[in-house]
Amino acid sequence: MIIQTRAYARAAILGNPSDGYFGKTISLIVKNFGAQIQLYQTPELEIAPQQQDCHQYKNIHDLCEQISLTGYHGGIPLVKAAIKKFCEFCQQQGITLPNKNFTVRYSSSIPRQVGLAGSSAIIISTLRALSEFYEVQIPQVYFPSLAMSAEVDELGINAGLQDRVIQVYEGLVYMDFNKELIQQQGHGHYEPLDPAFLPNLFIAYKTELSKVSGKVLNDVRTRYDQGDKFVIDTLANIANLADLGKEALQQKDYKTLHALMNENFDLRCKIMNISDSNMELINTARACGASATFTGSGGSIIGQYYGDKMLNNLIVELKKLNARVIKPTVV
């Protein structure tokens, strides 16, 4: 029997990037893109390499391009980290795994390095496949923390819980990462919201943008850890937008939501350097009358639009920047 599992891309609406700093966020799943795992029993344990894991290139320029698109390591380290954390989880829970091996294959349609959470999707999909293969239940509320530990503890990637929470819960979720709450119970407060609350949304991303996701926020982390009051206060203001946004969504007050999404990005600009290419995406979308903020750590944006005419205008204008526009599928 072949086990197949999936985890989807995600986009933050409000509160990002406060999730890594005990803040609050609202995120939605983006089912247009996903990572898939195939796992089946075999005599030996094998992780099947994919194209991005190969070490043969046409020439030096091909090597550089592949590194820009997929980083230095491909997806195999993510799968390995997920397997290790799953094994450790079972040991901690006193679960004895049966003596059987497997081959695991991964694939992903999530655009790389544009802030749509492709790495965490591979990890979560792997954990789901392992859970099914070994018939082990991972409580939903602890699942995001286990997935995050694979990246943070094993691979040294700077990450917050938000991506993993929405990829585990799916739909539309409000999240409160209160420090005392997390320290007391090992997870935050995760509240699913009705996706019917959502207005018309678009996502746009430039396929040629390339950066290693997770490294972008390092300066903010350092300043936060050093007690930089301006950074701490700004992140608190960003987190507060999630509370205001939750109320606006429930009341379908899209005018307020529009302003909050723009404010989220504008506050972010005060503590982070934004590349010219990313600013170009934001400014072009706003010039069309839409709101615009990052979906994640940069590289793609999400915003609210009004009617097909504005959507078509967004598609035309953003195409001039070599950016693709999609309508996110949540349900």
TrEMBL record:
- Extract the GO molecular function terms from the UniProt entry: ATP binding; kinase activity
Protein's recorded name: GHMP kinase
The cross-references to InterPro entries, in alphabetical order and at most eight, read:
GHMP_kinase_C_dom, GHMP_kinase_C_sf, GHMP_kinase_N_dom, Glucuronokinase-like, Ribosomal_Su5_D2-typ_SF
Its transmembrane ranges are none
A Pfam short name? GHMP_kinases_N
* The entry's keywords: ATP-binding, Kinase, Nucleotide-binding, Transferase
Q: Domain GHMP kinase N-terminal: where?
A: 78-171
Per its UniProt record, what SUPFAM superfamilies does this chain match? GHMP Kinase, C-terminal domain (SSF55060), Ribosomal protein S5 domain 2-like (SSF54211)
Which stretches make up the GHMP kinase C-terminal domain? 247-303
